[in-house]
Amino acid sequence: MRLSEILAEDRVEVVRSLERKADAIERIASLLSLGTATKDVAVVRTVLEEREGLQSTGIGDGIAIPHGFLGDLDRQIAALLVVREGVPFDAIDARPARIVVGVIGPKKGMHAQVEHLRILARVSRVLREPSLREKLVVAPAARDVYELLREADAKVP
User: Fold this and answer.
1) Which residue, 39, 141, 149, 155, shows the most beta carbons closer than 10 Å to its own?
2) What is the pTM of this model?
């Protein structure tokens, strides 16, 4: 599954800075909730916070991938938050996250959970290229970020 199949332009946001990881989780939960039927930010935030409580989803190189499962979903949903100046995310390399990709998926079924893991791996592969990460961080608007990611996603097998 391509990221462009689960990410919509209205779930992309660019901000200059955020002070805390909790602020980034709140923003990404808000964006992710736009893709759910209930639109309940609090429920999405709780799922992301519970997962984050197990271990930071800051994977390094300025990337964080907060994620989790919701019982009432029937498909995977992604959102993208670019924090130009970065936000502390307890990443494995101790660097702030500048690109935060949130992913939530259905809780039911082994297939859904396997698909969720594949999406997390795809996010890592698509964002592997440092030049793409830099382009995303300096892109002038959310629409530009979305297009850059969509184009990069199309090039990754």
Assistant:
1) 149
2) 0.96
State how far the Cα of 105 lies from the Cα of 76, in Å rounded to an integer: 4
Measuring CA to CA, how many Å separate 107 from each of 110, 115, 116? 9, 11, 10
Asked if 73 and 107 touch (Cβ cutoff 8 Å), the reply is yes
pLDDT tens digits for range 104-133: 999 887 888 899 999 999 999 999 999 999
Beta-sheet pairing, 58-60 with 63-64: antiparallel
Which residues, in sequence order, are bridge partners of residue 77? 104
Q: Which domains does the chain have, with CATH numbers?
A: 3-155 (3.40.930.10)
Q: What is the DSSP letter of 142?
A: H
Encode pLDDT of 26-54 as tens digits.
999 999 999 988 789 999 999 999 999 99
